[in-house]
Each structure stands twice: as structure tokens, then as C-alpha cells.
Write a structure and sequence with these properties.
Elements: H1 7-35, H2 40-68, H3 70-75
GO molecular function: carbohydrate:proton symporter activity
Main location: membrane
Protein name: Sugar efflux transporter
Length: 78
């Protein structure tokens, strides 16, 4: 169900989403840099690689859930 129908509304909501993601990404990066003082470059690289590994794992789990029908059963579509 769409809650926003006008392109201007969608653009505004996307801007809020980008700000939210930027803040969360910045907080995560700062956390990793606090864990590794004096190694800001290594901490940033570790943070970036950890996000990518998370994407891979999440994508795999979503694929398994979709293939097994878990998503359809839990949403009431089947």
C-alpha cells in the first residue's frame, strides 16, 4: 500500500531516508574507530567489509526463506 503518491513527497521521504542511513553509517564507523584507536584506516576498512559480509549473509538467508516459503506463510499470502 502506497502512502505517498506525489513525486515530491517521495523525494522528501527519500531525503529523510538518506539522512537516517548516513547518520547510522557514521555512528557505526565511529564505533569501529573507537575500538581501534590509532588505526582509523584499518577500522574503516573493517567496517566496510563487515557491511558487505552482512549483505551477503542477509541475501542468502532471504533467498533461502523465499525458496522454502517462509516469507509467504508468515505474510499470510499462501
Amino acid at each position: 500500500m502506497l502512502l505517498a503518491h506525489a513525486p515530491a513527497t517521495l523525494l522528501g521521504l527519500q531525503l529523510l531516508n538518506a539522512i537516517y542511513i548516513g547518520i547510522l553509517g557514521g555512528i557505526g564507523m565511529l564505533y569501529f574507530q573507537d575500538l581501534m584507536p590509532g588505526q582509523a584506516g584499518s577500522a574503516t576498512t573493517l567496517y566496510t567489509n563487515t557491511i558487505r559480509v552482512g549483505w551477503i549473509i542477509a541475501g542468502s538467508l532471504a533467498g533461502i526463506a523465499a525458496e522454502s516459503g517462509i516469507i509467504m506463510r508468515s505474510s499470510g499470502l499462501r
